[in-house]
Write a structure and sequence with these properties.
The protein is about 40% helix and about 15% strand. It is α/β, with parallel strands linked by helices and about 270 residues long. It has one domain: NAD(P)-binding Rossmann-like Domain (Rossmann fold, 3-Layer(aba) Sandwich). A 7-stranded parallel beta sheet has the order 3-2-1-4-5-6-7, with helices on both faces. Helix 6 links the parallel strand 5 and strand 6. The longest helix has 29 residues. The N and C termini lie far apart (about 45 Å). The relative contact order is 0.14. The model has no long low-confidence stretch (mean pLDDT about 95).
């Protein structure tokens, strides 16, 4: 039988590809950076904590044998974003994959988690960090990828941006409070932004997709883990080092060459209950 196309291992390979992972020095960002390097990509990882970023880059080089460049970056600073992306493209000669992982929430002194106690400053910070920061990175990436005629952007949403969160899961524990609703608004915005940006840049050979992770187990109280797991079809929370790696390699690689404008929930079925 004559092969009808590339071997599946080639479709998933990232050999010769260049990737940036923002927020790539810890947790899910580190998992995704590691996965891309293991699949053959050379990387740049960014963090606001430069010393940590340097240490993680060194570890990734030792583990994967790929080139990994560390950069200090605050994605809320458009000038910084443009500079770092341009430096990566100049150093490696191209930019094929961008994973917009950096983001998060904030709870300042004097602000609360409920809408009636939430400060406008914290609300706007979360929107700015997640949505505006993602915009800065997408803009910088598209400017480079348009010239190449190709590229894959993977934004990171959250199941918080897909469904309302059942407060029963948190059980009233002072140690476990749900992220504020502005975080959900921000992540939902990223999912919507992904879809329309994909429509805008598809003509340039650029694909834009989103991954929305569910909850990952990281030493939370046992009761929280039990309640959360009951809401998933697989009966467990996500596992660091494993459960997100395949998704990002798929969306970064030619294996998903006809996939764009999609939001892939990696959540054990959490968001699919009717």
């Amino acid at each position: 039988m004559t092969a009808r196309g590339p071997h599946i291992s080639k479709l998933f390979s990232l050999s010769g590809r260049i990737a940036i992972v923002t927020g790539g020095a810890q947790n899910l960002g580190l998992d995704m950076a590691e996965a891309l390097a293991e699949a053959g990509a050379d990387l740049a990882i960014t963090s606001r904590n430069y010393d940590k970023c340097v240490a993680i880059a060194h570890d990734l080089v030792q583990h994967t044998g790929r080139r990994v460049l560390p950069f200090a970056l605050d994605i809320q600073d458009a000038g910084q974003v443009d500079e770092v992306f341009a430096r990566v493209a100049a150093e490696y000669g191209r930019l094929d994959v961008v994973v917009n992982n950096a983001g998060g929430a904030r709870l300042s002194e004097g602000s609360g988690v409920t809408v009636d106690e939430r400060s406008p400053e914290d609300f706007m910070y979360v929107i700015g960090l997640n949505i505006v920061g993602t915009f800065h990175c997408c803009r910088a990436a598209v400017r480079i990828m348009k010239q190449q005629g190709s590229g894959s952007i993977v934004n990171i949403g959250s199941i918080s941006g897909m469904v309302g969160r059942d407060r029963w899961i948190y059980g009233g524990s002072e140690d476990m409070v749900p992220n504020m609703s502005d975080y959900s608004a921000a992540k939902g915005g990223i999912i919507a932004y992904t879809r329309d940006l994909a429509a805008e840049v598809g003509r340039y050979g650029i694909r834009v997709n989103c991954i929305s992770p569910g909850g990952f187990e990281r030493g939370q109280p046992e009761e929280f883990i039990r309640r959360y797991s009951c809401h998933t079809m697989l009966g467990r929370m996500g596992r660091d080092g494993t459960d997100l790696k395949g998704a990002v390699v798929y969306l970064a690689s030619d294996a998903s060459g006809y996939v764009t404008a999609q939001n892939l929930a990696v959540d054990g079925g959490f968001t699919s209950w009717s």
